[in-house]
Amino acid sequence: MANKEPVNPSHATFDLFVQAKTCQEVKKHFTELCRQLQLDPKDYSNFYTKLKESLNYWKAKAVWTKLDKRASQDVYEQGKACAQNKCLVLGAGPCGLRTAIELSLLGAQVVVLEKREEFTRNNVLHLWPFTIYDIRELGAKKFYGKFCSGSLDHISIRQLQLILLKVCLILGVEVHTGVEYKGLIEPSVEKGWMAKLEPPSHPAAAFQFDVFISAGGGRFVPEGFKHKGLRGQLAIGITANFVNRNTAAEIQVPEISGVARIYNQKFFQDLLNETDIDLENIVYYKDDTHYFVMTAKRKSLLKRGVIKQDYSDADQLLAPANVDHAALYLYAHDAAYFSTGGQLPDLQFALNPAGQRDVAMFDFTCMHRAEHASLVRERRGKKLLIALVGDCLMEPFWPLGTGIARGFMASFDTAWTVRSWGMGVQHMTVIAERESMYQLLSQTTTENTSKKYPLYSIDPKTRYQRINLSAIHTRQVKKPFIKAEGKSDTMSGFNELLRWCQNSTRGYDNVNIKDFSQSWKSGLALCALIHHFKPHLIDISSLDEANRVHNNQLAFSVINKELGIPPVMSPSSQIDKLSMVVYLTQIKDAVTLPPK
Ligand code: FAD
After folding, report:
1. Angle, CA 219 vertex, CA 186 and CA 281 arms, to 5°
2. Residue 401 neighbours by CB under 8 Å, 6+ apart
3. If DSSP codes are grouped into helix, strand and coil, which group holds residue 212?
4. pLDDT at 346 (0 to 100)
5. From the alpha carbon of 123, which atom of ligand 1 is closest?
6. Residue 221 to residue 448: CA distance in whole angstroms
7. pLDDT digit string, tens, across residues 487-505
8. Measured from the CB, is residue 294 less than 6 Å from ligand 1?
9. Choice from 114, 157, 284 to test ligand 1 binding pocket (greatest atom count within 8 A of CB)
10. Where are the alpha helices (DSSP H) in 126-275?
11. Number of neighbouring beta carbons within 10 Å of residue 91
């Protein structure tokens, strides 16, 4: 028989669900599927099993095979690890959805809130090999046939959201769109932690939870968390999307997977000579659109009139009133045209959800990250674990494509934290472990993470090559992270470490430790610390305070060689407070604790 179309209505609906290309379409077909199969999606703990039993369709089975394989990992304890937990996830971006999947596999009840009605972002995300593997193993190819075809190592944000949304729904995650999180409501005698929502009458407003995952993207963090900015050199990113008609000619045009200036001087010089466009790097990916992301130099933006007036302050420089949009469109167009060798002759801008040409300029000069990844709040004896994932935990630099890679790492780490929480691990230990993992996140690269992707799970040991879950001690997180009723934040764990450092370096010239950042800048404090415990390892009198890089280099290499503790930063980099705390804690343990 030539006709391969399914005759069973639920099979046809499943096909529509799988192929759906918008968030609302996905939800509509899913609701219809549940109606046809008489399944209650709110029955989250049995939903997936019942769906499998009721939908005896070969195409669906291919999806079940993938998901069953993931669900069979020991870490989930057969979906019992978090069977008592109720998790609210803020944000249906890729990281919120990816975390929701893991929490659901752990057996938790999971509710996701998303303020937007639709997934609309055309911009394209670079994928590290482990993320490609991960998404494929969730059945991505069934939902989006083009995924991972050929050398594809990227996907548009909205396509990734669609894939993850479909997986979430199949696993029994409740995903609400068009509802905005406005804050937490503290528990009463009868009720637990709840969320204030807009609209306030939304059914999810009645949901009581003991885990709150904030995946709101950007710089959004819930109360109790702080962001800090690491100011670097001025970096101006431009993204542009052009219509992809998928013609034979367009298919031929090779992608540009991250050309940096240092690797192709001639290309950038020619670009400058011919167009006055001066770039640090450029990436071109083909997906639903032709997507370009580039880092542009200030001078060339001024010369081409994109930026009207020069200011030293990046905020003023890139303020909307100081940008000429027509000149920006032309700049992006010309860069795209030149870098594809004129092979994309009919470059027509795709439109963004506001109906405007999809070109944007972003300031990456000051990269933000949250000071802590998690905390526990307690009111009326009811504890709430709050954790950050994705961009709101650590802002990615798009041209290098760290968003999804580090975002998913943090999703897995957070799921591991929730697992410990659900399995009754003491909450201070839960948070100390989460912070220990967080210390590694900003340093993760494809090189220093495990290549054994099939073994990846939420267990951090399967992914990080060097992980010490006790790098941050419980006493260091005791007060800063636990916000209990009527108690203020103090820093007893940090103070104890600070006092130890001060006592150990008392009397050394030019060493005056007052904090975990500036006091360590010259490298003398670190050298003095080593000298105090192991005088034979360092000739302290030979050091010059002004020679910062040398002093730090020396200290790092002695500590690495003699104590086996690898450096957490480069000798010339800015000192990151929490990394320094981890480093010093390790040193303190090595010189004061008896050998294991
Ligand atoms: P996001 O994807 O930002 O998702 C957060 C979600 O939370 C959003 O859907 C938002 O609507 C929702 N939300 C926020 N606040 C609330 C609230 N109060 N209530 C309910 N829902 C809420 N990365 C690249 O690598 N290349 C790019 O070109 C690129 N372009 C981007 C363009 C834009 C406009 C944005 C916002 C991000 C872009 N990124 C890009 C970053 C990339 O999208 C993220 O790294 C990636 O999507 C993972 O982010 P996330 O899931 O943490 O957050």
Report:
1. 160
2. 125, 126, 127, 128, 154, 258, 283
3. strand
4. 87
5. 28
6. 29
7. 333 345 677 788 899 999 9
8. no
9. 157
10. 129-137, 140-143, 157-170, 248-252, 265-275
11. 27
On whether both 58 and 99 belong to a single domain, the answer is yes
Residue 218 CA, ligand 1 centroid: distance in Å = 6
Handedness of CA 496, 502, 503, 505 (dihedral sign): positive
Q: For position 17, which CATH number holds?
A: 3.50.50.60
**Residue nearest ligand 1's atom 44 by CA:** 403
* Residue carrying structure tokens 């490298």: 523
Q: Which helix (H) or strand (E) holds 581?
A: helix 577-592
Please provide the distance, in angstroms rounded to a whole number, between the alpha carbons at the two ends of the chain: 71
How do residues 288-335 score in pLDDT, each as one tens digit?
899 999 999 999 999 999 999 999 888 899 999 999 999 999 999 999
Cα 391 to ligand 1 centre (Å) = 7
Q: Which of 364, 387, 422 is the last residue of a domain?
A: 364
Domain count, the chain: 3
What is the number of other CB atoms lying within 10 angstroms of the CB of residue 220?
A: 16
Verify whether ligand 1 is closer than 6 Å to residue 318 (CB atom). no
Contacts of residue 76, Cβ cutoff 8 Å, sequence gap at least 6: 105, 106, 107
Question: What's the pLDDT at 490?
Answer: 35
Q: Is 521 a residue whose pLDDT tops 60?
A: yes
* Ligand 1: nearest atom to the Cα of 180: 19
Which domain does 356 fall in, by range?
233-364
- pLDDT value, residue 6: 62
* pLDDT, tens only, 420-458: 999 999 999 999 999 999 999 988 888 889 999 999 999
Question: 125 CB under 6 A from ligand 1?
Answer: yes
Residues 356 and 334 in one domain: yes
Q: ipTM of this complex > 0.90?
A: yes
Tens-digit pLDDT profile for residues 225-278? 888 877 777 889 999 999 999 999 999 999 888 676 767 889 999 999 999 999
What pLDDT shows up at residue 211?
Answer: 98
Residue closest by Cα to atom 40 of ligand 1: 398
Cβ neighbours, 10 Å, residue 325: 13
User: Which of 111, 120, 123, 285, when mutated, tests ligand 1's pocket best, judged by the most ligand atoms within 8 Å of its CB?
Assistant: 123
In the predicted structure, residue 1 carries a pLDDT above the cut 60: no
The answer to whether residue 595 scores a pLDDT higher than 70 is no
Question: Do 377 and 185 meet the contact criterion of CB atoms below 8 Å apart?
Answer: no
Distance from Cα 56 to the centre of ligand 1, integer Å: 36
Whole-number pLDDT of residue 150 = 61
The verdict on 95 and 202 lying in the same domain is yes
For 57-108, the pLDDT digits (tens) are 999 999 999 999 999 999 999 999 999 999 999 999 999 999 999 999 999 9
- What's the CA gap between 496 and 494, in Å, rounded? 5
Of the residues 156, 219, 398, which should be mutated to test ligand 1's pocket, given the most ligand atoms within 8 Å of the CB?
398
Q: How far is the CA of 112 from the centre of ligand 1 (A)?
A: 15
Q: Is the pLDDT of residue 386 over 90?
A: yes
- State whether 457 and 513 are in the same domain: no
Residue 184 Cβ inside 6 Å of ligand 1? The answer reads no
- Same domain? 437 vs 543: no
Asked if residue 559 has its Cβ within 6 Å of ligand 1, the reply is no
